[in-house]
Predict the 3D structure of the following.
Amino acid sequence: MSTSTATSILASTADFDHHDKFGYWQDVVCRALVDLECRPMDGMAFEASVRGSHLEGLSVAQIEASAHRVARQPSAISRSGEESLIFNFVLSGTALAEQDGRSVVLRAGDGAVCDAQRPYSLRFDDAFKLITIKLARSAIAHRAASIHRITARSLAESSQMCPILFGYLVSFNKQASLLEPAASEKVVRNFTELLAAALDEVILASPLPLSEYRATALMRVRDFVERHLDVCELGTSMVSTALNLSPRYINKLFEAENTSLTRYIWRRRLERAACDLQDPTRAGLGISAIAMAHGFNDLSHFSRAFRQRFDLSPRAYRASGAASTA
C-alpha cells in the first residue's frame, strides 16, 4: 500500500510590500508549479494567492490573482526538462492561452491543456481565479503523441465530459490535502482516467494530423511566424529562407488547414492587435500605433481587415472593451 502523503502548496502576496509582491509571486510559481516567466501589467496593483497540493504524479492548485501574463520560455524548458502537461480550468475571469500557433479565450467553466515541453503563454487582462493541474505525460502515455493537436483549444467546446470533469476538479481541489494516502492514490487514478476520457473526446473531434514530418514542419513555421509577427516583411519568402523550406511546400502545409501562410499571418496579427485594443495599459496608444506595432503599414487596409475579422471597426472594438471593463 502507498504511504506517500500530499504536500501542501500555500502562498500569498498579502503580507509583502507592494515593491516585492510580484518578485515573490514569480518565485512561488516557479517553485511550486512550473517554471514560468511572469510579467505584471504596467501601473496596476498586484495581489495573488495559491492553495493546493502535490500528489503522486499530479499537482493541483487554485490560483487567485490580479491581471498579469506568464510565459513558458525555451530557457525554462531546458532547465527543468519536465515532461508534464498543464491544464488550466477557469473559475472566474478570462484567460488567453497560446501554444503551437493557436490561441483560445477561456471563460468560467472552460479549460485548456498546454505542453510544458514547448513554449506557451497565458494572459490574464483582469483579476481571475482558476485551478491548474500539472500531470506527468507518462500518466496518459498512449495519448501523449496526439496532445500537440489539441493544445490551446477549448476543452468545453469538444468534450461533453468537461462539465463533469470541472465539477469533480473543484471538489478534488478542496479535499486533496486532507486525503489519506490510500484514498489519495485512488482519487488521483480516478481523476486521471476522467481527464483522459475528456482528452479522447477532444482529440477525436480535432482535425486528422499530418504526417509527423509535416506536423513538425508546420509547427516550425508557426513558431517562426509567432516570433516575427511584428516584422512588416514577414511573408512566404522570409519564412522559406529562414527555415529552408520551399514556398510551395509551406503553402501545402497550410492548405491542409484550409488557409494559407499569408492569411494565417494576417489573422494572428489581427488577433494580437485586438488584444492590445482592449488592454487598459495601452489605452494611451492610438489605433494607428497599435496597427503599425503589429506589422500593418496601411491603416485603411488594417481597418477593413479588422472589421471583416471581428465585425466591428477597431475604434468600436476598443470602445466595447472599455464599456465592458466599466
Summary: The longest strand covers residues 84-92. The chain has 13 helices and eleven strands.
